[in-house]
């Protein structure tokens, strides 16, 4: 495992564009800190400081930071599809196989890299969230601090699932730009299917089925936190209530898609004439 990971990291770090994108991927989550210190002047009457509104209290901080950080995943997605595009354009994939790397090891080296960067990103978010929470939160009891840290696990799985999908599209079309375009096509396709089911049946059934789709299931791992924040400010508004939790069955759905994407990537490589 370490041998394959080290091999892939050497390739990425020798590529200037990949190094820049990786750096940006790890720097962007720190903008959550800027969000916590943001002050909004409301028409000159008063200043609204987000950090003083209680939205960075434990345990809601885990939900908030993982949601915002997951919006930056597209930068490393470019790195993932570039890993495959560069292999084909530079003919390194053929050279690696000639040098003794099996096709299974080739796919595993990409997958191990995905796991590695997802883990590093999750650790960064953990540190950032903990620091912001300890500074702003009104609660410092250990039991409250660790409550809802399952959002970190959901964030980790979400990154792995999304990058595995990018890996599959990269293997499918061999070109970075086209692979990213397929993500957009898949997004549109999921909503078209949702619309057809809603039209032929009902919206509730369509939503339940849509939650099993690749992109939607990844999104559902960490639902938007804005409604939850509103619930804390207006507890009497029953219509604001919704299920925002990170559930085990949702993680299993994404893990299932992840396994499928890695398997299909391997099958594509195995059948393809290089």
TrEMBL record:
Keywords: Membrane, Transmembrane, Transmembrane helix. Its main location: membrane. The chain crosses the membrane at residues 20-40, 60-84, 111-136, 151-170, 177-199, 251-269. InterPro entries: ABC2_TM. GO terms for molecular function: ABC-type transporter activity. It is found in: Membrane. It holds the Pfam family ABC2_membrane_3. Residues 64-266 form the ABC-2 type transporter transmembrane domain. It is a multi-pass membrane protein. GO terms for cellular component: plasma membrane. This is ABC transporter permease.
